[in-house]
Each structure stands twice: as structure tokens, then as C-alpha cells.
Amino acid sequence: MAMRVGVVLLVLAFISGTSLAARIIVGDSAHWTFGYNYTDWAIKNAPFYRNDTLVFMYDPPNNTTFPHSVSLMKNLRSFEACDLKKAKLVANVVQGGGAGFEFVLKGRKPHYFVCGERGGIHCTVGLMKFSVLPVRRHCQA
């Protein structure tokens, strides 16, 4: 009987821990777009937790909008300089359409997000960059 109670509690703890993860639309109603200050947005929406899902929503390329993408920068120096040489593309120009591109925050490490389009101009001039450091969510008893 004690074994069953322990297993049930373990399952409930797992379910409650995963159900606390949030689905967060990057930029809120502005979505992922040129000229919005995502660093301010990230500061206002912090803290971010492990297993939260960031949703990047942007229009696919067309005659009226510039294309956007999502890249992860390797380190803070590359992020600050918008140096895309070692950036990893995680969502191309069409993946942000519809329900958007979802990125789950894993691990307790900094994530440096940028738009890598136009040779980094969207990152430098367009303010399309932000960083998050996911923290562990503490269960409340």
C-alpha cells in the first residue's frame, strides 16, 4: 500500500511540474517583428522557467513584409554584436506562420535569440534580439 501511495505521489508531482510550464508568445500581440524592443519585453516577462515554451509568430515572406527567422547565438559576445557567424538557425522564414514556431526552454543556461535576416540588420537596428536564463520552478506545498 505504501508503495502505491509513493508511486501515485511521484506521478502527481511529475504531472503538476509539467503542467506549470507556460506557453509564451514572444512580443505578445506585436509578435516577432522589426522595431519592437524584445530586450524590454523579456525583462518585463521574466522570470522564464525550464520547460516554458516560447512561441515565435511572424508572417511568412510576402510582398508587404520582410522575412524573419529565429537563430540562437553561441555566446553573449556574439549576441551583443549580432555576429551571426556561429549562430544556429532554429526556425526559418516560413516556420513562424500560423500557430508559430515553438521553442521549449531546456536546461539552466542562457538562450540568446535573434532574427538573423538581412545580414543581422534585424538584430542590430530592428532590436530583434533577447536573452533568457530559464530557472527551475519551485513547487509550492
- Largest beta sheet, briefly? 4 strands, antiparallel
Strand order in the largest sheet: 4-3-6-7
Query: Mean of the pLDDT scores?
Result: 86
Unreliable stretches, pLDDT < 50, 5 or more residues?
3-18
Rg, rounded, reads: 18 Å
Q: Give the overall shape, derived from the CA principal axes.
A: globular
Number-wise, the strands total 7
Alpha plus pi helix count? 4
Helix content: 25-40%
Order of helices and strands: HEHEEHEEEHE
Structural class: alpha+beta
Strand content: 15-25%
* Cα separation of the termini: 23 Å
Mind explaining what this structure looks like?
Mean pLDDT is 86; it is low at 3-18. The two termini are 23 Å apart. The chain has helices at 2-19, 38-45, 76-81, 121-124, and strands spanning 23-25, 53-56, 70-73, 88-91, 101-104, 111-114, 129-132. It has 141 residues and is an alpha+beta fold. The chain has a four-stranded antiparallel sheet with strand order 4-3-6-7. Strands 1-2-5 form a three-stranded mixed sheet, with no helix packed on it. The longest helix has 18 residues, at 2-19.
Task: Record keyword descriptors for this entry.
141 residues, alpha+beta, 4-stranded antiparallel β-sheet, 3-stranded mixed β-sheet, 4 helices, 7 strands, 26% helix, disordered N terminus
